[in-house]
Amino acid sequence: MKTVYLSGRGLACALGQDVASSLTAMRSGGVSPDTIKLPGATGGTFPYFSIPLKHDDWNERARILVQGAAHEAGAGQIRSGVLFIATSSFDIGGVEQGMAQMDYAAFSNKVAAWLAWTGPVYVINTACTSGLNALLAAQALLEAGEAEDALVLGVELDNRLTLGGFAALQLLSRTGSKPFGANRDGLVLGEAIAALRLSTREPAVWKVSGGANVVDGSQPTGASVSAVVSMYQRALDASGLSANEIDLIKVQAAGSPGNDAAEAEGLSAAFQTIPPLVSLKALLGHTMGASGAVELALLTACLEQGVWPKYADTVDGELGIDLARQMPEDARRFIATILGFGGSHASVVMERA
Q1: What does the DSSP assignment read for 295-313?
Q2: How far apart are CA 277 and CA 169, in angstroms?
Q3: Considering the entire predicted model, what is its pTM?
Q4: What is the pLDDT of residues 323-332, one digit of tens each?
């Protein structure tokens, strides 16, 4: 089996339109979310993390952001590879503006054309876990020698359908994102684009060691404690590591009262000594299908550049866990986790190469 490296990354999120500007914003304490007003009985005003790029044409804005992230990741260095597009909302924002049709094949063809991509293209939609599952699919393909390079592209851009759906389910916070917070009251959504360039021919700082996706359909809109435990166990087995070899875990911790509690209970069951924990949702919002790729791009950059999130809210003491207030001194191995709709629980293990 070949070793798969994270050889490049690109990012556009609420913090900035590239990795460097995002880290600069983090050093200053992050950015404040915008506010979006939704109509109806379950509507109102909600915080929302927008990418700081305005454009009247949804497709043109998406093209600029996708091309920018791919360029930053070094997509031009890919000689022949596979494109994995991870999304949960496709181009629904364009459909809402009358600039696109509800045609998923047309969406993937459009994104491929923006990148002048001539190789195979796969679209992964497993709700919030799409980004990590796309990464795991790319890892499997590259490990088997089916390709030498892959580009994992997480795409989640503004649309009213997603916001309206979450508002109707009463899952959105009206105040702000509070990961594992004592006063957490729901999710804050956001938009983001991330590009992860994977390679077996180009050694880099990080390698993809393994991961797992566990689905528990008994909890279609929430996390399952048993699935969280199984996810961590399977991810460790796939990477050949033991629980005490993990130096850091990037948790989901989106601020949901029930899901945060289930995640915390699963962590306590899976790890005799819980490693330091980090959450990025208060900086980015929950970027849905792109979140796995987005948060992995930002976290690896943080670990390399010595940048760490600041948490404004107190962690709920009843959860029995805490968030690391400073970066672990030598985080060589970490697990990145995303929990999502449909009972999907996904993790990927990354190691310094």
Answers
A1: HHHHHHHHHHHT------S
A2: 28
A3: 0.97
A4: 999 999 989 9
Give the C-alpha separation, 250 to 278, whole Å: 5
Among 156, 153, 154, 152, residue whose Cα is nearest residue 189: 156
pLDDT in tens, 176-188: 999 999 999 999 9
Determine contact, residues 221/293, Cβ cutoff 8 Å.
Answer: no
Q: What local confidence, expressed as pLDDT, does residue 232 receive?
A: 98
Which residues in 305-323 are b (16+ Cβ under 10 Å) and which e? eebbbebebebbeebebeb
Bridge partners of 38, per DSSP, are 44
Task: Give Cα separations from 63 to 58, 156, 291 (angstroms).
Answer: 9, 12, 19
Q: What whole-number distance in Å separates Cα of residue 306 and Cα of residue 327?
A: 7
Rounded distance between C-alpha atoms, residue 47 and residue 29, angstroms: 17
Tokens of 151: 């580009």
CA distance 109 to 120: 11
pLDDT on residue 67: 98
For residue 220, pLDDT beyond 80: no
Which residue matches tokens 């697990």? 335
Instruction: Give DSSP secondary structure letters for 20-79.
Output: HHHHHHHHTT----EEEEE-STT-EEEEEE--S---S-HHHHHHHHHHHHHHHHTGGG-S
What domains appear along the chain, each with residue ranges and CATH number?
4-199 (3.40.47.10), 206-352 (3.40.47.10)
| Residue 180 near residue 315 (C-beta atoms within 8 A) | yes
Whole-number pLDDT of residue 319: 97
Give residue 108's identity as a one-letter amino acid code.
S
Residue 221 predicted with pLDDT over 80: no
CB 154 within 8 A of CB 290: yes
Cα gap 50→14, rounded to integer Å: 5
Inform me whether the pLDDT recorded for 175 exceeds 80. Answer: yes
Nearest in space to 32 (alpha carbons), one of 312, 257, 250: 312
Q: Which two tokens stand for residue 65?
A: 């952001």
pLDDT tens digits, 229-259: 999 999 999 999 999 999 999 999 999 999 9
